[in-house]
Amino acid sequence: MKTIAFLGYHTDQNLGDPLICQVVETLFKERLPEDTDWRFFQLRNHFEGLAKTKKNKLVEKLVVFFRKVSHYVPWSIWDKIRVQLVSWGYRSRLRDVDWGIVAGGGIIHYRFHESWLGVCAFIKACNCERIPVVLNAVGVEGFDSENYKCKLLSHFLCYPNVRYISTRDDIETLKLYTKSSPRKKINRVIDPAIFCSDIFTIKKDTSSKTIGIGLIRSNIFNDYRTHYDGQHLANYYKDVCLEIQKRNLDWEFFTNGNPEDLTIVPEIERLLGKKIIVKTPSTVTELISIIASYKGIVSARMHSCIVAYSLDVPAVAFVWNEKIAFWGRNIQKEDNYINMEKLSAALSVETLSHDFGNEYNPVLRKQWEKGYLDSVDQAISALLSNSK
Fold first, then answer.
1. Are 281 and 15 a contacting pair, CB within 8 Å?
2. Strand pairing of 296-299 and 210-214?
3. pTM more than 0.90
4. What is the pLDDT of residue 226?
5. CA-CA distance, 99 to 6, in Å (whole number)?
């Protein structure tokens, strides 16, 4: 039996990431030639699962300390020290591990959150233990040769123990990270969450007359430097409700599970002049079931759109991040993913209504599914050929 160190956002409240983790684990297990034991490593809380020894507590406090220091004295050395500290934490749980798998999702990031730290530290720790690593369907934020965090990601992605990388985003950007290791195996794939309907055996309600409206926190635009005034977002949601009502359909609000997305609710209620109920899932199964109950969705969170695709539920979203536009291009539905400059409730609902009764391109779906499963086989082959 092989033991696998599995790095991801396993317990995030934004359920798109736990969904990726569960789907990836299932698909790899189905295609691995033997039984495996999976050991979860967290990208959010790097020290989860460690024994609460004085040493581990001290290392964890030092990581927090150097993060604070870096805000006031932005020297690259602090980032390097943090990678070393987190790698020590990961390494203490790598005993008897044979392979490392990174679940994927938006993890090749260095501007807006700290996935870069966990990825670098995980690769470093596995390399110290001579453990081969594959990165699965990673999201790639961008590339900046002047940014030190980006440089660290590039450095560790080129480590010799990284045997295979697939990306759901722009493969040419990923190649910029690995240009010093041009022979590294890289592939472009679809987001694995497209398999969720089959894996969780959930199907859409074909008789539904309700449109799901997916909420997102209004300050997302500030975080991602998008030129859109988040104060307009509540008005957009209110207008979407009115546009849906014009078509004699019902509407219902939902989230992907992140409680921060509920902060906009009081303003929507003020504009609508009434209280609203928001369906907030606490598990991946609940998220899929909620989206399956809708005739279509108007959303913003990427994985609500991917779940809808898996269920064959029409979806429209606005593009606050390039990854969402990239998803739209992948499934040949670019018009359904609307730039903020063109965004209006009327356009969103009208675009959605055109898709009622239509299926997503089944030939394209089969191609993406096969391509992803082929990439899993390639990743497994790379791990088998480099086993301890």
1. yes
2. parallel
3. yes
4. 62
5. 9
